[in-house]
Amino acid sequence: MKDRTRKILFWIIILIGIVVRVIGWPNSFEEVNCDEVMTALNAKEISETGKDIYGTSFPVYLESWGYSGQSVMLAYITAIFIKLFGANIFSVRLPLLLISIISLFVIYDLCKRIFKNKDVALIILALSVICPWHIMQSRWSMDCNLFPHFMLIAVDLLVIGIQKNKNVLYLSMIVFALSMYTYGLSIYVVPFFLLIMAIYLVRKKQVSVKELLICILIYLLISAPIILMYIVNFLGLDDIKLGPITIQHFEYMQRTGEMLIFKDNKIDSLILNLERLIKLLFVQYDKLPWNSIYGIGTIYTISMLFAIVGLYFMCTKKDNDYMVLFTWLIASVILALNIDYANVNKLNIIWYPLLILAGYGIYVLVNTPKLKKILSIIVIIAYTVLFAGFNYKYYAGHINVIENSLTWSNGLNRALKYATNLDKSKIKLYGEDIENTTTNVYVGYNVEFYKDNKEYSVYNMEPMDDESIYIIRKENMKEEFKDYNCKEFLQYVVVYK
User: 306 CB contacts (<8 Å, ≥6 apart)?
Assistant: First the structure.
């Protein structure tokens, strides 16, 4: 392909990728997920006080739910956008959108360097642009979904450092270290990946011992607080303060309980985890509608066939630059085998290497002599139909399925928006599950993020008054409400005189 044609195609593909991710954003989801709500509340508090919602100064990991936690990187990035643009859904969802768009440029650059072939890179870029997983995770905010993007950027910088400029190698260590703050499970992936790569690069004399020591020092200096947090919790130590930074001891660490190393029956758990991994890779559906659509998958189920082809042909060639991709894939598989209930977002680190392998597999097949033209047409038609099918399902109804799912606000966000625009000063929420943590978080998010000078309170069976607006779950609607105005929003109803 001529350079001019390739450049034109590159920018057309990039433009499609941006449009698909930006159209309807950030309000394509009017409802909010409990994880992005908790990130939003912590980010707002950090932007104002430097503390999380529990009053902890610059934590390296967020307590969030009391029984579990969240990684802190997304909250800190969101805090910056809240400072710049105010406390709103735009600021909360902007980080994932931006880094997802940036990743399109990064994956092209990485593949161009690994394969030394711009046509391969262009195919992989096109696959990334139309990838359901990549599109779906970019349109809302979940802390763990930062991890694969940080890993992608770090790996690209690592390859640049190896091939071209050793100073960039040190920059990659900064990003690898920062990725430790994007997702709790990174502790099982990043150190393993770096250890294997360090051994390989030193043995191949692509990195000197001195350069390796500098890399280790940079990585440990930046990642030390989060590594120390795991040590503190593993050993049951007390909180540690490093200036304004807090390294907390948590009563319960959810990620610890999920790992194979802490299981009594390791063999049975390993077999079960392997079965789940195989199903996740080839069915690409985890029954969580915000992660994938049944029948469509994360990277399209057909892509796994191309990924197998790509892996086979990569294994037949001896190229040092392929090692970074092999190591990434192996680290992802090891994580999957060691974690319970691996789903699309828990295993989000695996989708980029699979996309890359699938793109390479397509390139190899469409360049097969005698079959080149017919295979090219078949692949283009197949992915065009799949992409069209994904968009139809996603926008024609799947968004409503997501918003009405467990851990989403199920109409509460829309109900509160509607209520704040009514000409009454008091808004009362009624429901038998009002003490539920998730419900309280949703309400807190709306109270904090919608500046309406209204009074919010909890309604518990006291007589209704005509001056208030009531927000009630459908199952709690009673006969006495029939004389009031009622406006339904998924699982919630706004009731008022």
Answer: 357, 358, 359, 361, 362, 365
